[in-house]
Specification:
alpha/beta; Urease, subunit C, domain 1; TIM Barrel; globular; binds (4S)-2,6-dioxohexahydropyrimidine-4-carboxylic acid; binds zinc ion
């Protein structure tokens, strides 16, 4: 049994942000109280050994739920696999991760959904929930067997990595979403507008001489998908929103009652196109980093609830791929182990976002939208839980990262504020930054 003494509890599911003593027993959050005496705790323990953590000055919150992680298994295990990715997850404070479907082969049938699910259970760290593709082979022309795949354990459907260019296909997918009740996650990118661009089109891309991707490459598809969701009533989730125009479109659609949620990635909240250098591909990501103005709009959108969730879009790649020249390196940032700290350091500490909102957007909101357990510390719920030390600092070092990937902009840099203990179903899986 665990006794966390005088810890600051953030649990948006109970609108709670206050100091409490927390007891965890039998895999569950047993009780929370303003204070507890040793006598009371020992009575509850009924002879079970109690580990007491003096957690004053630290936070406890529900394990984070990441609805957008690329785990690369099956097929690209040199970049990441389900075991390494789920170890990276719990090191970073995530107790549930949704595994994107653009693997090799892509997850477009029930057997593959069941494979990912089983590998997650075998790994035994975070809960790993498979996302299935929307179309067979991610070819954009024929829908998968969504009902069958849902029965096999699919948590959502997405052709992420690629947009569904055919509007009728997207419309049909949203019709089916009403049958399954599961969200269609849209990677909004007009192929023709994006072309073979390498970063966001603007003054910076022109100065650097790099081919640009206009902001409209994202927002025209956001507009299309919002209209299709409005017409069908299907459940739409928009991945990695990165432009001011998209935020405005979503805000307006929500005001009309469209069935939509949206996520934003930490890198789009923290960096902008001006941070990109030709000699470092770590910030080469898709959608590309926007302007300073976009960054402001995203933060505002997250604050006012237009953007519902934070998600990492953890996109691991090998060093040999990422050390290619800028034009040839793949898009993506590996972020499971650094995302929460980066958000703490760059957004919460400077007062741009409250920690309460961050936790809501990264645990409670995804649980609600995707119909998942977790995202709560209500007594009786499974103890998927994070103890966060705001003062703990660490240099992001190749030797300590447990992900196979090193494509992070924070490599060699110091970050502050880390999860120092993580429990999954009451089982301690990470302590003092070491995965158990
Ligand atoms: O940067 C990205 N990397 N964006 C995506 O949409 C896909 C992802 C990947 O699979 O590497
Ligand atoms: Zn994507």
């Amino acid at each position: 049994m665990w006794w966390l003494k005088e810890v600051w509890v953030i649990d948006p599911s109970q609108s709670l942000s206050a100091p409490r003593d927390v007891l965890v027993k039998g895999g569950q959050v047993l009780e929370m109280a303003s204070s507890m005496t040793e006598e009371e705790v020992l009575t509850i323990a009924q002879g079970e050994p109690v580990e007491t953590i003096n957690a004053k000055g630290k936070f406890v919150f529900p394990g984070l739920i990441d609805v957008h992680t690329h785990l690369r298994e099956p097929g690209q295990e040199e970049k990441e696999d389900i075991l390494s990715g789920s170890r990276a997850a719990v090191r970073g404070g995530f107790t549930t991760i949704l595994a994107m479907a653009n693997t090799k082969p892509v997850i477009d049938n029930r057997a593959l959904v069941e494979f990912v699910l089983l590998q997650g259970v075998r790994a035994g760290y975070a809960h790993v929930l498979p996302i299935g593709t929307v179309t067979k082979g991610m070819q954009g022309s024929e829908l998968v067997e969504m009902v069958d795949m849902k029965e096999g354990g699919a948590a959502a459907f997405s052709d992420d990595g690629k947009n569904i260019q055919n509007a009728e296909m997207m419309r049909l997918a949203l019709e089916y979403a009403k049958l399954t009740g599961l969200p269609i996650i849209s990677h909004c990118e007009d192929k023709d507008l994006a072309g073979d661009g390498l970063m966001r089109r603007g003054v910076t891309s022109a100065r650097m001489g790099l081919k640009g991707i206009p902001a409209s490459a994202e927002s025209v598809i956001v507009a299309r998908d919002l209209l299709l969701a409005e017409e069908t009533g299907g459940k739409l989730h928009l991945a990695h929103i990165s432009t001011t125009e998209s935020v405005n479109l979503i805000r307006e659609a929500k005001a009309r009652g469209v069935n939509v949620t949206a996520e934003v990635n930490p890198h789009h909240l923290i960096f902008c196109d001006e941070d990109i250098t030709l000699t470092d591909t770590a910030l080469k990501v898709n959608p590309p980093l926007g302007s300073r103005g976009d960054r402001e709009s995203l933060i505002e959108g997250l604050r006012d609830g237009t953007l519902d969730m934070i998600a990492t879009d953890h996109a691991p790649h090998t060093q040999s791929e990422k050390t290619r020249p800028f034009a040839e390196a793949p898009f993506g940032i590996a972020s499971l182990e650094t995302a929460l700290s980066a958000v703490w350091q760059y957004l919460v500490l400077p007062g741009q976002l409250s920690l309460d909102r961050v936790i809501e957007a990264w645990s409670y909101s995804p649980a609600q939208r995707f119909g998942l357990s977790g995202g709560t510390l209500k007594p009786g719920s499974s103890a998927d839980m994070v103890l966060f030390d705001p003062d703990f600092s660490e240099v992001i070092d190749s030797a300590t990262l447990v992900s196979k990937a090193r494509n992070t902009p924070f490599l060699g840099k110091s970050l502050q504020g880390f999860p120092i203990m993580v429990w999954v179903e009451g089982q301690l899986v990470q302590r003092n930054r070491t995965v158990i």
